[in-house]
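Lecture 7 notes: from sequence to structure.
We start with the chain below.
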Amino acid sequence: MLKILNGNPGLGVPLNEQETVKFLTTGKLNLHLGTLDKSGYPNVHPVWYYYDTENNRIYLETSKQSKKTDNLRNNAIVYFCIDDPNAPRGVRGKADVKIHEDINFNVPIAEKIMMKYLGNTEHPVAQTLLDMQKSGQSVVLEIFPKYYSTWDLRK
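Predicted structure tokens for the same chain:
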């Protein structure tokens, strides 16, 4: 069972668990990932993601050398937000993160992300990103949400 909070008390209503899962698994919105750099300043990174309904985890792939990876090696906590401004609703929350460098774990996750956003793994962008995973140049970030703060202003 997901821990869901009301993201906009007094304005709209929170998404229920089924609506939250559907929001996270359908569509192609970017997840905005907030990390802290070594100086304590926030960085926001728009990323593609995959939500695993079985274990309530959010996954994304990125370069080993990316700013987000560097930030997370020093402080493995994030804030994330996925919102749809055209149908004002969304999901955000706080989470812990684990960095995965195991190619055998990472490639299947990266393939799921490519399928979600590009529709196949044959697309040139998908091929480039998957080649980076297979060569060990990229990592997968596993996000462990503590809660989901949700809102739906359509209701």
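Points to note: Helices lie at 17-25, 67-74, 103-118, 124-134. The longest strand covers residues 89-100.
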